[in-house]
Amino acid sequence: MSMYLIYALGGALVFAIGTYALLARRHLMHKVIGANLMGSGTFLVLIGLGNRTPDGVTDPVPQAMVLTGIVVTVALTALGLSIAKRYFSVTGLDNLDDEPSGGDRP
Amino acid sequence: MMVWLPVLVPAIAAIGTFVLGEDRGRSRNTLNLCAAALSAAVVISLAFRAYQGVVVTSTLPMLPGVDLGIHSDLTGLLFAAVATVLWGVTLVYAIGYMDHARDKARFFGFFALCIAAANGVALATDPVSLFLFYEVLTLTTYPLVVHSGTAEARAAGRTYLMYALGGGTALLLGVVWLTTLAGQTPFTPGGALGGIAGHTTALRVIFALMAAGFGVKAALMPLHGWLPGAMVAPAPVSSLLHAVAVVKAGVFGMIRLVNELFGPELASALGVAQVLAVLAATSIVVASVIALRQDDLKKRLAYSTVAQLSYITLGVALCSPLAAAGALAHLAHHAFMKITMFFTAGSLAETLHVKKLSQMGGVARRMPLTMTSFAVAAFALTGIPPLAGFASKWLLGSGSVEAGEPWALIVYVGAGALAMGYMLPILIASIRPGDQDAAEGTESDPRMLWPIVIVGALSIILGLTAGIPGSPAHWAMMAVAPSFGGVTP
Amino acid sequence: MDHLPALLIITPLAGAALVFVTSRSVDRAITTVTAALITALAVLLAARVLDTGAFRYQVGGWAAPVGIDLVADGPAALFILLTAVVGSAVTLYATGYFPSSEPTRYGNGLFWTLWLFMWTSLNALFLTGDVFNVYVCLELVGISAVALVTLKGDAEALRAGGRYLFASMLAAMTYLLGVALVYSSVGQLDMETLRGVLLEPGMAGSGVAVGLALMVVALVLKTALVPAHFWLPTAHASAPTPVSAALSALVVKGSYFALLRLMLGVMPPGFLPGVDVTLAALGSLAILWGSLQAMLQPRIKQFVAYSTVAQIGYLFIVFPIARAGEDVLTLALTGALLHAIAHGLAKAGLFLGAGSLMERFGHAEIARMRGAARTAPVLTAAIALAGVTMMGLPPSGGFGSKWMLISASLHAGQWWWALVLGGGGLLAAAYMFRVIAVFVSDAEDDIGPARAPVRLEWMPLALAVAALFFVLAAPLVSDLVAVSTLDAPAVMLP
Q: Which of the other chains make 3 or more beta carbon contacts under 8 angstroms with chain A?
């Protein structure tokens, strides 16, 4: 049990780091990576806490959840990266907080 | 089905008007006039049946536990008749008045919708249905108040909305609370709240909320603030809506509230009727005094309306058969008298560009028919026999004595004197030599002139025929009788 | 028609795939046909639910807890119907809005695919009966919505889309963590089973509670409840008009529906103490804040978006009231759902009308749209009539829901919410009439001619009118809501 608890606590820690990155860091890449970290942390928690069946047979459901989660996160990351890339090419900025110069109002 | 027609016919006419658009004036006028005639015919025929005791009810399921209902009782039909008949008359006047104005389709369309809503208020079976139509009336009057689009009009519109929607919210809270306590209670002569009479505090607050809601449209001071500003609207709007439909919806709500929801007994027992009576009496006096000092003709008439409406509210609050009959009769009589005067103000403004008393010198010579009709209506308003105003005031006065509240009689008499005080100067101003003597031209456009003469004449006729079945006064007595167990004039 | 739930998900998905692979010239046709099909299916579902009660559908024949169950009860059918009606209206509008002759503007071809894909995700979200599936569907909706927001490709759209994406990811990851904690504690994902488990003593205060709390927070963020609303106004305002309409009318309702399932269908009363009241208090704050901001916005789509922020607040007032007792639950729930539907219709009409008005005037500033009542009467009527629903005035659906919620709060003895609801109507009137007053002004700002096709003018009006008379449909809503409480085998709501 305590082995798995380490995974879970580690996952929670990674999740927290990811949340901080997503919320507090300005750079778009940092935000995207932060979101990814949040996902990874959650997966760790899932694997860590979810693997506790009494008779030793692994519970497949958390693994299914993690796989699904990875797929979804990949899609979101791809979207996030393409938005960041496009935004950079349109405005030359790497964060969302600075005002873009020039006419971008419709 | 027929009982829905007074609401549906004007509504359909409105849709037709919007669809026809700005250019098809002849078709639009024909449509509206036919709709007015049809609605009036339906209302009168329903009234015949109601006189014989036949009341038709029809409901439509709406919210859970709450239906939308319409019924053809005498009280409602009197208001509906006034609104529908005067709609027809005002249409003729408006067609003449709005000849050179813009956005006619919008004007006539919303006009018709207002009548539909007012008829809905009149014929609603219960507070919820009445509330629904009451709020729709607020919405449909707004475009008419802001019709000209000027900054002044829009400001008046804003003020109107603040008052009307504020009052509407109070009314909503009162009605929902009531429905929570007692379910959907239809208006019943003599009151419908016997089952929950024990909740005295709740009932007092509910009454206050509902009276506030009705009080806004009924221009009960201090909720009257929207009315003088709303005079910026075109004269047909001021005439029909602010002398007939909108304000009468407010006092009509009061009548339903006291006579057929709470019932005269309960309202007196709770003490709320007495409070309402004092507020109404104060309103009468203060408004009349303010009217004395107005130079702008429409504003003077507006404050007169505030006072006259409070006659009705006071009559209702006295909780006696004769006073109630007088209140309902005055609802009708005042409509005819006041509309004559607002029509006149409109004619003066539109044809002669005269808006203030100080500009009115010589008007009587230039527009003799118009001013004579005005004079008749003015004298009627002050309560001179045998004109219409006297009939209703006599009922109200006798009702005061009958209710054991003779101070109200003093208020009515005093108000009559004040009315003379604010009406006479108008007549005198018109006779006095002045600018108008030198100018050219005569009476207004016949479409504006004849309605004035007709309603002015009716101010006489309604007074003379006051005792005859079918006249508003008699009709009113028949209508309120069930709430009190009989009326003895 | 046992496979209706699956069909409702497969049809838009198939449509999306088809649009993607075929040539651009048939995009509109395919989407319109798909929309019609979905609407028919939605009607059939509602009819089926009214007729024989709620039912469960096992995807692929795998039963819970291994498989995923779809649940079709009254509220689900209602939201699917709303999505179908508004979706069809938006589709029709979009066929006129996106000019077929400009292939590269708005990433033209992609709109249709993404739109149908979002529709798929929404339908799936409304039908889901499993908390993990909620996560998947929320993410799917989020991806398609973000992509649609950024469709214009300019800096403003990208920025709004970026913010939306990050908020979405934050919410989704938090939600997933919550699910992880719940599963690790009780080993169940199916909503109905969870409900049974949570009723056992000793459940509150464990890891489940923390997990559920995280899930609630995440859904609140997705539904843009104040103070988590920061991403919504820019996202909804910067998107192309049909997208704005869909976002405010539908997408927001998706996460709200999941929250309803969670709070009223999974968690027993009092499970997370204080959450109900907190949500309602935040809702009241939303009504106030959103209305105030709406009054201050100079640009029309931002104005409409803040109105959404305010209207969302109403939806949260239901929570403490619904818990006050069995008899109040149905009334409160019907009120909330009626509000969601009427708001959906009216908000879509409002956004489409505002968008069309923007196109005609050539700019987005309200102060320079004077005289629109005369120069663009149909659009003005659409906006004004939609506003009536926002204000909660009769005979609109907004009034119906206001009535029911006030009534429910009085029955529940929590009368203060009645004041909030009444006040909200007045605030809405303030912000709506501020705009309407500009439209009826006698001054006239320059305006372009009505853009063909004519449905760009009439679709907003149709939606607004539907919302205007919607109180007459309240009995239908009530009947469908009741189905969730009857003795159907898949009862979701207590």
A: C
CA C71 to chain CA mean position, Å: 19
Q: Is A28 inside a domain boundary?
A: yes
A59-90 pLDDT, tens digit each: 778 888 899 999 999 999 999 999 999 999 88
Distances in whole angstroms, Cα of residue C48 to Cα of each of B135, C3, C138, C482: 37, 11, 26, 14
Q: Of all helices (H) and strands (E), which one includes residue C55?
A: strand C55-58
Q: Is C181 on the interface with A (CB under 8 A)?
A: yes
Instruction: With beta carbons under 8 A apart, name residues in chain C contacting B136.
Output: 393-395
Among B103, B161, B176, beta carbon nearest to C406? B176
pLDDT at C492 over 70: no
* Per-residue pLDDT band at B488 (split at 50, 70, 90): low
Does B126 reach chain C within 8 Å, measured CB to CB? no
Q: Best residue in C337, C374, C417, C433 to probe B by mutation, most B CBs within 10 Å?
A: C433
> What's the pLDDT at C486?
30
Note the pLDDT of residue C494: 34
A96 falls within a domain? no
**In this predicted model, what pLDDT tens digit does every residue of C42-65 receive, in sequence order?**
999 998 888 887 788 877 766 666
Q: Say if residue C405's pLDDT is above 80.
A: yes
Q: Which one-letter DSSP state was computed for residue C106?
A: G
| Residue-range definition of the domain harbouring residue A30 | 2-91
CATH number, domain at A83?
Answer: 1.10.287.3510
Write down which chains contact chain B via at least 3 CB pairs under 8 A.
Answer: C
Report which of C276, C367, C351 is spatially closest to residue C311, judged by C-alpha positions. Answer: C351
Q: C421 and chain B: CB distance < 8 Å anywhere?
A: no
Domain regions of chain B by residue span: 320-480
C-alpha closest to that of C70 among C85, C58, C83, C80: C58
Query: C471, B150: Cβ pair inside 8 Å?
Result: no
**Token pair in block for residue C271:** 């499970």
What is the least distance, in Å, from the CA of B271 to any CA of chain C?
25
If pLDDT is split at 50, 70 and 90, which confidence band does B439 have?
low
pLDDT score of A1: 53
Give the separation between CA B142 and CA B111, rounded to whole angstroms: 10
Checking if the pLDDT of C272 tops 90, the result is no
Q: Which residue has the tokens 């929320």?
A: C138
Q: What residues of A are in contact with residue C182 (Cβ under 8 Å)? A: none
Inter-chain CB proximity B61 and C394 less than 8 Å: no
> How distant, in Å, are the alpha carbons of C251, C398, C468 from that of C346?
15, 9, 8
User: Within an 8 Å CB–CB cutoff, is residue C433 touching chain B?
Assistant: yes
C140 chain-A contacts, CB cut-off 8 A:
72
Of the candidates C404, C419, C442, which has its C-beta nearest B63's C-beta?
C404
Domain count, chain A: 1
ipTM of the complex: 0.90
A103 has pLDDT over 50: no
User: Is residue A99 a part of any domain in this protein?
Assistant: no
Nearest to B342 by CA among B313, B314, B300, B311: B300
Q: Output the 3-class SS for B51-102.
A: HCCCCCEEEEEEECCEEEEEECCHHHHHHHHHHHHHHHHHHHHHHHHHHHCC
pLDDT in the model for residue C457: 84
- C367: contact with B, CB 8 A cutoff: no
Q: Do chains B and A touch (3 or more CB pairs under 8 A)?
A: no
Q: What is the structure's pLDDT at C490?
A: 31
Residues in chain A closer than 8 A to C177 (CB atoms): 15, 38, 41-42, 45
A98 within some domain: no
